[in-house]
Design goal:
The chain has 2 domains: 216 residues, Type I PLP-dependent aspartate aminotransferase-like (Major domain) (Aspartate Aminotransferase, domain 2, 3-Layer(aba) Sandwich), CATH 3.40.640.10; 131 residues, Aspartate Aminotransferase, domain 1. The protein is 34% helix and 15% strand. The protein has 12 helices and 12 strands. The strands form 2 sheets. Strands 1-7-6-5-4-2-3 form a 7-stranded mixed β-sheet, sandwiched between helices. Strands 8-9-12-11-10 form a 5-stranded mixed β-sheet, with helices on one face. Helix 4 crosses helix 7. It binds pyridoxal-5'-phosphate (PLP). Its cofactor is pyridoxal 5'-phosphate. InterPro entries: Cys/Met-Metab_PyrdxlP-dep_enz, Cys_b_lyase_bac, PyrdxlP-dep_Trfase, PyrdxlP-dep_Trfase_major, PyrdxlP-dep_Trfase_small.
Length: 394
């Protein structure tokens, strides 16, 4: 799909893609092509339109040169062939459901999944005649025992973006393939940079572009990426029927974030690792849930399958601190804002009550979990801020 030279490194292809779409006006900026209607030279062209043909422009909702440029870049980053854009990461998740499932089907969802995905499963089960069942994210090949003839889709999230368990992705996808069950991964945590889902047998990858791809905390968007063309067309058809589209203006914001994404990701990764190493030595912390640390379930799969971690990790505080004390700790941080949507420059923090979010796998910790997103502020300042807030716990 991408026209740039695939013998070059991904980072070079993203920064220097050499596929300017405006002949005669060569610039580094992605042109913003806005359209509702697209006009045709004659009726023979109109009658020859085919929604499956990506080379034809049909309607602004479906694709524009700007959105197509973004789709090509994203497919390249993820190691896929085809990408589709949705107006949020969550709508990418729902597009997968509506593209692939029908009444009577069964879907397996990891217990640690991004919680609106869980709400989606519950909604499908309640109102659409689809059974949604939750599984222990560390189940590995044991997922075979859960597969029924009606099972059509298995979701994965690697790692779960709050509790950070890293599943054995190839073990799960091997079982799924054996039983002809599709697999979809929410790969937002790795941005498609640190984990290549298609090399591990996954069929569909979802990215919340709202996060690292945008990098600006100012745009919402999501993508579904596949290697397989038939799967791509199924998701595309549902997208068309649901009237899902994205604006070229928003696409240009995401395109602007992509060239710097890897250096940002690596900077988040270095600072997060270093702060996590320090936090782990603190007596207030009972467990370090960062996949690069042995405390984190699935650490061995992280070492085997991932090339980096970015800025997001969680800690479990010692159970001697009450949830109210942990709330006060979070609120007393000055450089960490209370917020969910990570991937931008600013650091974030959020406490979670995990036991209330699970049904399949028991949660072994009694203390409160706090998720940190390490932004691009000076690392020593972030550490001093956490150190000062920890002192308020004493
Ligand atoms: C943020 C996020 C989403 C949803 O993205 P939105 O664009 O906010 O809808 C989905 N999955 C994960 C893991 C996320 O972090």
């Amino acid at each position: 799909m991408n026209q740039s030279d695939s013998s070059r490194a991904l980072q070079t292809r993203i920064v220097n893609p050499q596929d300017d779409i405006t002949p005669g006006f060569e610039s580094f900026a992605a042109p913003v092509t806005r359209a509702s209607t697209v006009v045709f030279p004659d009726l023979a062209t109109v009658r020859g339109l085919d929604w499956k043909n990506d080379a034809q422009w049909r309607y602004g909702l479906h694709a524009t040169p700007t959105s197509t440029m973004l789709m090509q870049r994203l497919a390249d980053i993820e190691g896929g062939e085809h990408a589709l854009l949705q107006p949020s990461g969550l709508s990418s998740i729902s597009n997968v459901y509506f593209g692939l499932l029908k009444a009577g089907d069964d879907v397996l969802i990891p217990d640690n999944v991004y919680s609106p995905n869980r709400d989606h499963g519950d909604w499908l089960a309640r109102d659409f005649g689809i059974t949604a069942r939750y599984y222990d994210p560390m189940i590995g090949a044991g997922i075979e025992a859960l597969i029924r003839p009606q099972t059509k889709l298995i979701w994965l999230e690697a790692p779960g973006s709050v509790t950070m368990e890293v599943p054995d992705v190839p073990a799960i996808t091997a079982v799924a393939r054996k039983h002809n069950v599709l697999t979809a991964i929410d790969n937002t945590w790795s941005a498609g940079l640190a984990f290549k889902p298609f090399d591990h047998g996954v069929d569909i990858s979802v990215q919340a572009l709202t996060k690292y791809q945008s990098g600006g905390s100012d745009v919402l968007m999501g993508a579904t990426i596949t290697r397989d063309r038939d799967l791509y067309l199924k998701i595309k058809l549902a997208r068309m029927r649901l009237g899902i589209g994205v604006s070229s203006d928003d696409c240009s914001l995401v395109l602007r974030g992509l060239p710097s994404m890897k250096v940002r990701f690596d900077a988040h990764d270095r600072a997060a690792l270093s702060l996590a190493q320090w936090l782990k030595t603190r007596s207030e912390i009972a467990a370090m849930l960062h996949p690069a640390f042995e405390d984190c379930p699935g650490h061995e799969f992280y070492k085997r399958d991932f090339t980096g971690a970015g800025g997001l990790f969680s800690v479990v505080f010692d159970e001697r601190y009450s949830p109210a004390q942990i709330d006060a700790f979070c609120e007393s941080l000055e450089l960490f804002a209370l917020g969910w949507s990570w991937g931008g420059a600013r650091s974030l923090v959020m406490p979670y009550d995990i036991a209330s979010m699970r049904t399949a796998a028991s949660w072994p910790y009694r203390g409160t979990l706090v998720r940190f997103y390490i932004g691009l502020e000076d690392e020593a300042d972030l550490r001093a801020d956490i150190e000062r807030a920890l002192a308020t716990l004493a």
